Amino acid sequence: MEKKSNRVLSAIESVCYKFRYLFLILYVALMVIVPFLDIKLVHAQVIILIGVYAMLGMGLNVLIGYTGLVSLGHAGFYAIGAYTCALLETKLGVNFWLALVASGVLTAFIGFLLGLPSLRLSGSYLSIVTLGFCEIVTMILKQWESVTNGNYGVRNIKQPVFFGIKLDMYNGGLIVLMLVLCLIVGVASLAIRNSNAGRAFRAIKDDELAANMMGIHVSRYKIMSFVISAFITGIAGGFYCVTRNYIEPGSFNFDVSILILSVVIIGGLGTIRGMVFGAAILQLFPQVFRFLDEWRYVVYGLLLIVMMRFRPQGLLGWQSTQPYHLSKKTKQILEADGGTSEPLEAAGKTEGGSEQ
User: Fold this and answer.
1) CA distances, 15 to each of 109, 149, 354 (Å)
2) Nearest alpha carbon to residue 151 among 140, 159, 166, 162
3) How many helices (H) and strands (E) does the chain have?
4) Which domains does the chain have, with CATH numbers?
């Protein structure tokens, strides 16, 4: 049964890779037609939340899925990005686009500082440190009233303007911006995964000692993974704040960290497709089963237990049987050296080898 399932998934993966450019064209077409669709406000809010949590999942995926470092405090990075963008806009009058970049940069710097303990900690010890970081951020947001307004939060957050056009929920502008950001983050995550740094991340995840003996600078790449993960999360936070007229510390508590972690685990560790699917599942589940009232959380918990028992790799995480897809330039170099690319393409199998 399992082998049959893997063959089906492998066939789906092969089709997705073969028609990847067609999917990209359809995605771009969707961004073009969104402003002409009559999307209700409540539906627009759910769609945007799916996009935000997909980006948050991609950010955490760099840390957990690629490098194997578990974080329980990503809501802290999320809060820093959101508050940075909101405060720069409301108190200093900074343009949204500059504030968004500043959110990512500042969060990445905090990620660098938090990444330093990861050089000596791992496993549950690192998880506790990141959990403490999330609580510290929440306390600072509540107590530093002169800057963050404390429990009153930040109000009247301006929505972005693009060439004189205000992007909001009603004209579909924020949905288009969300789709653009998700596309950029997704492509960047894929590029990171297939880069030298991405291969180093995965080597550290598989066996840190072996990676160190192979000449990989483990400390450098651990910190790099924290920085990249925090930057993506900060961008997601900066975008989230403009989708709301008001943010406050309670919006970034420990429950949010668990929700981001659930997106990664349910979708599939190390995959990009899984982050989008996991975010959609977790955001749509409370809406679809709202008629169950509080019992829907019981059903949600039972589904998580069943999935972790029978599908621990995630819903869209599977062992790829697809070969490495070598570029034309690489094939030409191999053939010029008197070799052939066919053995490499036939034998090269990896987890998510043709990631979509």
Assistant:
1) 40, 52, 11
2) 140
3) 16, 4
4) 37-318 (1.10.3470)
pLDDT of 163-218, one tens digit each? 888 888 888 889 989 999 999 999 999 899 888 888 888 888 888 888 888 888 88
Q: What is the pLDDT of residues 65-82, one digit of tens each?
A: 888 888 888 899 999 999
Structure tokens at 198: 């991405």
Helix %, strand %, coil % for the chain, to 5?
Answer: 75, 5, 25
Stated length of the chain:
356
Tokens representing residue 276 in the block: 């989008």
- Residue 62 CA to residue 202 CA, distance in Å, equals 10
User: Which phi and psi angles does 318 have, rounded to 5°?
Assistant: -145, 160
Please give, one letter per residue, the 3-state secondary structure of 128-141. Answer: HHHHHHHHHHHHHH
Taking the C-alpha atoms of residue 213 and residue 240, their distance in angstroms, rounded to an integer, is: 42
Torsion of CA 105, 110, 114, 116, to 10 degrees: 70
Q: Which residues pair with 323 in a beta bridge?
A: 349
Q: At what angle do helices 41-61 and 254-267 cross, to 10 degrees?
A: 80
Long-range contacts formed by 13-18: CB under 8 A, 24+ apart: 13/318, 13/320, 13/322, 13/354, 13/356, 14/322, 14/354, 16/273, 16/354, 16/356, 17/322, 17/325, 17/354, 17/356
Nearest to 57, CA basis, from 260, 226, 198? 260
Residue (of 279, 230, 251, 224) closest to 81 by Cα position: 230
